[in-house]
Design brief:
The chain has 593 residues and is of the alpha/beta class. It folds into five domains: 96 residues, no CATH class; 42 residues; 56 residues, no CATH class; 91 residues, Nucleotidyltransferase, domain 5 (2-Layer Sandwich), CATH 3.30.420; 191 residues, no CATH class. It contains 26 helices and eight strands. InterPro entries: RNaseH-like_sf.
Length: 593
């Protein structure tokens, strides 16, 4: 019968051989478990008893990896105890095991003090019982035996992953599940998916007791969360001056919906969502809807709406103009971020060379993404150059900055793309043709591959993209991104717009006639976009900024203190003037002063 292993071996795996002739090599079970592949399935029983990982498929590879990293020690108590004291994966129980197996000087002193304290307590208890000496000890043991006979025979103990949730924990988990569902845009049925349920139960067997159902996520929990948010918004904006804006989009059910939000202290707050399928989109109908939105928000939240913002399409623009005529105190604005996107459209109209080049870029990326074997050749060059493979991005007019992002990504991939075309053109053509045998179709495929290769092969094409197109798009997208921020102010948008104007105004010093003409046309279009805004409000916001004042305006602006004073008085009177409309329920700002 082989000798019994020491207690400390319970934390270690022993090698089959004895390299030094006397001791096995010992490898900490938790060090081996740390080398487990991330994709390896989790066995709950093996997690509780690490010795069971010896039966896993990945065990041999994990053990070999631990040995390569020299995580094994000589199978001797001192070496194993020293490993447990320093190992980052060792538990408190294993460190206590190390102290028992091979105590250090400090461990011995602690044990000695503990023994002395325990002995003192025994003597005290014996004295209290009145017998003293050994008789007192016997009496105390007898009392303990009697108490044990009255103790519970079996106590139910839950495993770590099987402990039930308290009611407070269940409520907190339900609320967080709702937030996670909304944040990740998940369907409400995701908690009922069998694979998700298995995953949750692997983490904790009682997980499904606390995870809310689909009906709870889309019903009571959602309503409760909405009520809490409404109460917070009402407390936040009560008696405050705010800006209201509304915008429309298509829901997942393809319904036309309109969102109504308030902006308060640079924070966007959702007030309501309106289904607009049956509502008319002409100016006269929209102005009535705008008034209803304003009145409902002021009644419900107790706020003061002093400005109103919408898109600048035909119906919204007309409705906003009528609203300003009815409620004279309101400041009305179009969406400034849309102005940046419209300027991008203006740029592509005025610069035919840029529009053609972006069209060729889109054509090349579409061709590449449509032919897997061809794309594999270009991807191989990326892998060789960068050590990773990046996607070939496509611009989209409805995603406002994607033209710039796609152009920058394509310019970044210039090296691998040109290297693939230069060194593997024949392979690209063969991959395009594939198994086609029809001579006419085969020739057409060859011509198509050669056309796309030659499309982006010339230095002139890349120079236009890098030196002309990307800098112009970058200035336009800076304006768009600034205008999209919740923290942007009118004076900041005006400075961004002026910066874009100066960028194109600088084209007048260029030698090429086409560049000078492009600069003139873009300046006119930018002035046209600024004309859509309430220019006085933007200029006054810049002038009244104590860090800017009049320093941003040159002599050509023809702005002086007298003109500005007149405009300030005019705007101030406008925001405090009120013309009552029929059956109006809103309040006049002048009445609140």
């Amino acid at each position: 019968m082989p000798p019994k292993q020491a207690e400390i071996w319970s934390a270690f795996h022993a090698s089959d051989d004895k390299p030094n002739g006397s001791h096995h090599r010992a490898t900490h079970w938790r060090c081996i478990n740390a080398e487990r592949p991330s994709a390896a399935p989790i066995d709950i029983e093996a997690e509780e008893n690490l010795k069971l990982i010896k039966n896993e498929e990945w065990f041999a590879a994990a053990l070999a990896s631990a040995l390569r990293k020299k995580k094994d020690v000589n199978g001797e108590k001192g070496a194993m105890a020293g490993h447990l004291r320093k190992c980052e994966f060792a538990t408190d129980e294993e460190r206590a095991l190390a102290a028992r197996a091979k105590p250090t000087k400090k461990d011995k002193e602690v044990a000695k003090k503990r023994k002395q304290n325990d002995g003192g307590e025994d003597d005290t208890e014996a004295d209290d019982e009145g017998a003293g000496g050994s008789g007192g000890r016997k009496k105390r043991k007898l009392v303990q035996a009697v108490e044990t006979s009255f103790s519970q025979s079996q106590l139910k103990v839950y495993k770590g992953n099987d402990i039930p949730f308290s009611e407070d924990q269940k409520n907190a988990i339900a609320r967080q599940t709702l937030r996670a569902t909304q944040s990740a845009n998940l369907p409400e049925r995701w908690t009922s998916d069998p694979e998700v349920m298995k995953l949750l139960m692997m983490l904790r067997s009682r997980a499904m007791d606390a995870i809310p159902s689909r009906s709870q996520l889309g019903g009571s929990l959602l309503e409760q969360a909405a009520a809490e948010i409404d109460a917070k918004i009402a407390a936040q904006v009560k008696d405050q001056d705010v800006l209201m804006c509304t915008d429309g989009w298509r829901s997942n059910r393809k319904d036309a919906v309109g969102g109504v939000t308030l902006t308060h202290k640079f924070q966007s707050l959702l007030v309501s969502i309106v289904r607009t399928n049956q509502l008319r989109k002409d100016g006269e109908s929209l102005v009535r809807q705008f008034e209803e939105m304003i009145d409902a928000a002021e009644r419900k939240l107790g706020c003061n709406i002093i400005a109103f913002l919408t898109d600048n399409d035909g119906g919204s623009k007309r409705g906003r103009t009528l609203l300003a005529a009815i409620r004279l105190y309101l400041l009305t604005f179009p969406c400034c971020a849309h102005q940046g996107q419209l300027i991008l459209g203006d740029y592509l109209k005025e610069n035919e060379e840029a529009a053609t080049l972006m069209g060729e870029l889109i054509d090349f990326v579409n061709w590449l993404n449509s032919h897997d074997k061809v794309r594999d050749i270009f991807d191989a060059k990326q892998q060789e150059t960068f050590g990773k493979i990046l996607a070939y991005l496509l611009p989209n007019l409805t995603r406002w900055t994607t033209h710039l992002i796609a152009a920058i990504r394509f310019e970044f991939l210039k090296g691998p793309i040109r290297a693939a075309i230069l060194n593997h053109r024949d392979e690209i053509v063969k991959a395009q043709v594939g198994a086609e045998t029809n001579p006419r179709k085969k020739q057409a495929l060859e011509d198509d591959a050669i056309y796309h290769c030659e499309l982006v092969e010339s230095n002139a094409w890349w120079d236009k993209l890098q030196k002309n197109i990307i800098p112009d798009l970058e200035h336009i997208c800076y304006l768009t991104n600034i205008a999209q921020s919740d923290h942007v102010r009118p004076d900041q948008f005006l400075l961004a717009l002026a910066g874009l104007f100066l960028h194109f105004d600088g084209f007048s010093a260029r030698s090429k006639l086409s560049d000078r003409r492009l600069g003139q046309h873009m300046c006119k279009r930018i002035e046209k976009r600024f004309k859509e805004l309430d220019q006085v409000v933007f200029v006054l916001a810049l002038v009244l900024n104590p860090f800017e004042k009049l320093s941003r305006f040159g002599d050509k602006a023809q702005i002086d203190v007298f003109k500005l004073s007149t405009e300030i008085v005019t705007v101030s009177l406008q925001t405090h003037e009120f013309t009552p409309a029929k059956n109006a329920t809103h309040r006049c700002p002048a009445e609140r002063i």
